[in-house]
Amino acid sequence: MERVRVLDSNFAGVVSMSELLVELEGLLRTHDWTYQYSDDHRAWTKGKNESQAIRLLRQKCAAAGLEAEATAMFKSWVAQG
């Protein structure tokens, strides 16, 4: 398993590429894809925060050379969402 150093103060250390994709998969699986339509501000805020976390993790995947895999995974979940 190839390991990559991700330079980010919020994501310290060396992680395997597959760990990044596993984490992204988990975030995508549990994300509320309809949060924008919620009347409950707490649900909207939670969904917005999850969306930002997904975006940041996709950027980390891209920095690790996994942009194509992360984008394909994201698009498959958007289609399901």
Question: How would the blueprint of this fold be written?
Answer:
Layout: E1 3-5, E2 14-16, H1 17-30, H2 41-63, H3 67-80
Antiparallel strand pairs: 1-2
Helix pairs in contact: 1-2, 1-3, 2-3
Structural commentary:
The protein has 81 residues and is mainly α. The protein has one domain (3-80). Helices cover 63% and strands 7% of the residues. The chain is built from three helices and two strands. It has helices at residues 17-30, 41-63, 67-80, and strands at 3-5, 14-16. A two-stranded antiparallel sheet has the order 1-2. Strand 1 (3-5) and strand 2 (14-16) form a beta hairpin. It is elongated and about 40 Å long. The chain starts with a strand and ends with a helix. 11% of the residues are buried. Residues 1-9 have low confidence and may be disordered.
